[in-house]
Structures are given as C-alpha cells and as structure tokens.
C-alpha cells in the first residue's frame, strides 16, 4: 500500500475517532446524570427587602408577537416600586407602533414600563441590551425574548437565589408553547429538552462552566459590568458573557424545576437560520475564549469539558469533510487492497459517534418524565434532521473559524401556541412579510445529494454491505434537505 493510500485511510479513521469522542461526550452526559440526578440548588436565604429588578424584552421587527409579550410581561408579580420594564426595541417596521400603543396604555395604569428605542442596530441584540442598561435601575436584569411568556411568579420564585453574593446569573429551563404544532417542533423540543434537562443540569450540578441561553434568565447587574459587559463581537453574546463572567470568578445556577415557555421556529428555514446563528456564534466564542480557558487556573476536567462545550458545533463540519472527501477513497482503497475486514473498526466508531447523540436525545425525555416510547419512535426523524443541518451548520462553523462577520439574523416568530390555535391578533397577511429567508446554498445541497446517491450506488455494486445503512441514511437526509431548499427557493420566487 502506498503512502498516499495509507494517509487517506488514516485520516478517515482519525476523523471518525474525533466524531466518536463527540458522541462519547454526549453519552457521558447520560452517565453523569445518574450521579447528579438528585441535585438541587441549596434552598436560598430570603432577602429582607426585595431588590429592584429591571425586566428587558429585546426585540426587532416582531409585530406578530409584540402585543403578546407586552401584555404578558406586565402580569409579573413583583412589588411595583421595585420593578422596571424595558421594551428594548430596534424595530424598523410596524412593531414599534404596536409597542408604543401598549406601553402608553400600561403607563396610564401606573406601571413602570418604558419603550427604549434606538436609531440604529449597532451591535444588534448585545448592543441594544448594553445601551438599555444606561437607563436600567435594577440591581438585577431579567431578560426574556419576545417569543417567551414567563409565568407571573417567575421573579418571586427565583430572585432569592441571589442572596448568595457570588451568583451572577440564574437560568430557567425552556418549555415550548408550540411543542405539538408539527413534527418539526416536536423534534426541536426533544433536542432542547436534552440540552436543558440533561446537559445544563449536569454541568451546573458538577460545577462545570455552562451558559446563559440568551433568554429566560436573570443577571446580576454588577456581574455583567464586571465581566466586561455585553459584547457584539460574536453572534452568541449570551455564551460569550457567560464564559467571561465565570472566568472572572462568578458562579451561575440552572433551575431545572423553574420553566419559561417560548416559541419554537415554525418552519425549516426559520429553524436553519436559528441553528446557523447558534453554530457560528458558538465557534466564534470558541476561538475567542478557549485559549483563555486553557491559560486559566481552572482544573483540567473543567478545561476539557469547556472544550467539548465550545467545539461541539464543529462535529457537523468534521462529518461532512470525512464523508465527502475521505470516505469514498477509503472504501475504494480498501476494496483494491482487499482490506475489508477492518469493518470491525468502522462499525463501533460509527455506532459510538451517532449512537451517543441519539442516546443523549432519547434520555433527555426520560429525565423530564416524558414518554420514552414517543422519543424512541422519533429517533429516525432526529437523525434525519441532524443530517439536514449538516451543510447549514458546517458553513456556520467554517465562517466562525475564519472570522467572517455577518449580521445577527433574527428567528421569525409567528405567535402560534399549539396546533389549531390562533397565531396572533394580527393579520395573517403579515406572515408573508415575516417569513424566513431560505439559507443560501441550495444548488450546493443538490450537488451533495447527487454525490451521496452515487456513493450509495457504488457501495451496492461493490458489496460494501456493512456501510449501506449509514450511507442510506446520509443519502436520504441530503436528498430531503436538497429538495426542501429547492422548494423553499421556488416558493420565495413565486
């Protein structure tokens, strides 16, 4: 076997091992949960006098949910003289008028609510939050995105955790307003359930670094300032601030029993747009903060955990590189050199790399007491959705690695609650205006689908039976993804 042939096969297995490590890390979350399943934050002391809280609602062009969030946020149960509400509005459309009318209405009822507007979107969400803090009066800042609806007692049930002076942030578990609206929202809910009910719980309980999720949480004002304030140099300002605060010595809490429901993206384009922002922002924070993490005096276990945490979005890119560039030559060379008995290495690596993720998602339903049978039935759909995100999130990861800057693209919300419910009080004609733009690269996705189809047929003709299930799932996933992208662009051009 030539040196080049050995190199190609070696790189293929090297990339498979990396993917396997990501899968094992996911699996470790399941194992660690058994150790920390009974963990609950200490019962907090009670403030002798409740502190002042500023509630910030950042939004941009959200006319379909603007009235709903304003009408919901004024229902928060907290002493009126201790509560300030800021609607942090960067909108350039009719959203501002809707907000202005509702804010004026509630101000006349004596509620301390302000409409904080900017003339530009400098710094996007991070910039808006930073500027709004100039007029914030609260010792603590509660943040809720426009599509989240906190229960009235949310603040009262969580604020006393800040009697511990070193707590910078308290994060609530996300629930989902439109969980059962469609198969897409059901699958998204399973993915987020695993992140919150399993991953965030384990990281908090084991005293690892974890992150604020951008909404449904409360920050200590002095911690935000001490950590360097909100920064717009990444697309995930929440993750960035979380790491800076913890590296500065602050602690954070995750409350698994306190939930706040929000709206899941209603269509694939909106979902891909959201995932692109999260994936790219995560890699940007990795490039920015991971060297600092490893230079810090944190224990090695925390450094390793943080590395997996910040680098996990690169798994899509690694999988795409391996299957597109090295898989076919590897199979061909092994066929030429009668080296097929190495399947006993392939199969365990493939099972661990993909099985670890599936176990993590499945177990996320178990820890929250949800139906495990329903979760098991949806595992194929979860695999398909992951494949459909591969190109989208790989592109995001590459842009993050090479420092390509893009604007903060909001995820459109429709105001839907559940299947068959009224989306909002606004006209349905607004939905066309707020429709998510399909991500670029439809022709590339079609080309990838064609390549995988050819690879699958080649594997059949060369009797690589052990690889067929894996190749079939990949091929089907990319074909579906390409079809969806093509159809989305067709719809947009009509």
What features would you describe in this structure?
Pfam families: Glyco_tranf_2_3. The chain crosses the membrane at residues 6-27, 314-333, 339-363, 441-460, 466-487. Keywords: Cell wall biogenesis/degradation, Glycosyltransferase, Golgi apparatus, Membrane, Transferase, Transmembrane, Transmembrane helix. With 494 residues, the chain is an alpha/beta fold. The protein has a domain at 3-34 and 312-493. Helix content is 55%, strand content 10%. The chain has 18 helices and seven strands. It has helices spanning 3-36, 66-73, 95-107, 124-132, 154-158, 183-205, 221-226, 237-247, 268-295, 300-311, 315-336, 343-367, 372-377, 379-388, 390-401, 430-433, 442-461, 468-493, and strands spanning 53-59, 83-89, 113-117, 140-143, 167-176, 217-220, 251-262. The chain has a seven-stranded mixed β-sheet, with helices on both faces. Helix 3 links the parallel strand 2 (83-89) and strand 3. Residues 419-429 have low confidence and may be disordered.
Keywords:
cell wall biogenesis/degradation, membrane, seven-stranded mixed beta sheet, 494 residues, transferase, glycosyltransferase activity, globular
- What's the multimeric state? single chain
Order of helices and strands: HEHEHEHEHEHEHHEHHHHHHHHHH
Helix count equals 18
Distance, first to last CA: 55 Å
User: Taking all residues together, what is the mean pLDDT?
Assistant: 89
Number of strands: 7
The largest sheet has its strands arranged as: 3-2-1-4-6-5-7
Profile the largest sheet: 7 strands, mixed
Instruction: Assess the beta-strand content as a share of residues.
Output: 5-15%
Spans of at least 5 consecutive residues with low confidence: 419-429
Large-scale geometry: globular
Radius of gyration: 24 Å
Look at the helices and sheets and give the structural class: alpha/beta
Estimate the helix proportion, in percent.
55-70%
């Amino acid at each position: 076997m030539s040196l080049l042939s050995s190199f190609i096969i070696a790189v293929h297995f090297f990339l498979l091992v990396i993917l396997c490590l990501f899968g094992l890390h996911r699996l470790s979350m399941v194992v660690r949960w058994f150790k920390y399943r009974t963990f609950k934050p200490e019962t907090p002391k009670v403030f002798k006098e409740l502190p002042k809280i500023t509630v910030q609602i950042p939004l941009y062009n959200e006319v379909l949910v603007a009235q709903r969030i304003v009408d919901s946020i004024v229902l928060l149960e907290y002493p009126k003289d201790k509560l300030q509400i800021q609607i942090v509005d960067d909108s350039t459309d009719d959203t501002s008028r809707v907000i202005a009318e509702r804010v004026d209405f509630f101000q006349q009822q004596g509620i301390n609510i302000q409409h904080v507007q900017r003339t530009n979107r400098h710094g996007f969400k991070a910039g808006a939050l930073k500027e709004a803090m100039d007029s914030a009066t609260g010792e603590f800042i509660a943040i809720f995105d426009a599509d989240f609806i906190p229960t009235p007692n949310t603040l009262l049930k969580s604020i006393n955790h800040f009697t511990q002076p070193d707590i910078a942030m308290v994060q609530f578990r996300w629930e989902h307003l439109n969980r059962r609206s469609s198969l897409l929202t059901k699958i998204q809910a399973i993915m987020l359930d695993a992140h919150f009910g399993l991953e965030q719980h384990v990281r908090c309980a084991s005293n690892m670094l974890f992150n604020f999720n951008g909404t449904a949480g409360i920050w200590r004002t002095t911690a935000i300032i001490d950590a360097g304030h909100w920064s717009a140099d990444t697309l995930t300002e929440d993750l960035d601030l979380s790491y800076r605060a913890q590296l500065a010595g602050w602690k954070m809490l995750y409350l698994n029993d306190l939930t706040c429901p929000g709206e899941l993206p209603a269509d694939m384009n909106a979902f891909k747009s959201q995932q692109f922002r999260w994936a790219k922002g995560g890699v940007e924070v990795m490039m920015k903060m991971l060297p600092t993490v490893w230079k810090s005096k944190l224990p090695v276990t925390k450094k390793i955990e943080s590395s997996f945490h910040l680098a996990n979005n690169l798994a899509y890119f690694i999988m795409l590189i391996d299957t597109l560039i090295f898989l076919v030559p590897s199979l061909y060379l092994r066929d030429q050199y009668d080296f097929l008995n190495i399947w006993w290495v392939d199969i365990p690596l493939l099972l661990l790399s993909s099985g670890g993720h599936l176990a993590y998602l499945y177990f996320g339903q178990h820890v929250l007491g949800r139906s495990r049978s329903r979760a098991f039935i949806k595992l194929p759909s979860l695999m398909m959705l992951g494949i459909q995100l591969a190109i989208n999130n790989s592109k995001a990861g590459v842009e993050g690695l090479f420092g390509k800057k893009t604007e903060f693209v909001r995820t459109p919300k429709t105001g839907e609650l559940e299947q068959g419910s009224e989306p909002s009080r606004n006209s349905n004609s607004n939905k066309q205006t707020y429709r998510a733009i399909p991500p670029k690269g439809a022709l590339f996705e079609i080309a990838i689908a064609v390549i995988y189809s050819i690879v699958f047929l080649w594997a059949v003709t060369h009797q690589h039976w052990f690889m067929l299930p894996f190749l079939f799932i990949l091929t089907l996933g990319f074909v579906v993804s390409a079809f969806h992208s093509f159809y989305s662009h067709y719809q947009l051009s009509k």
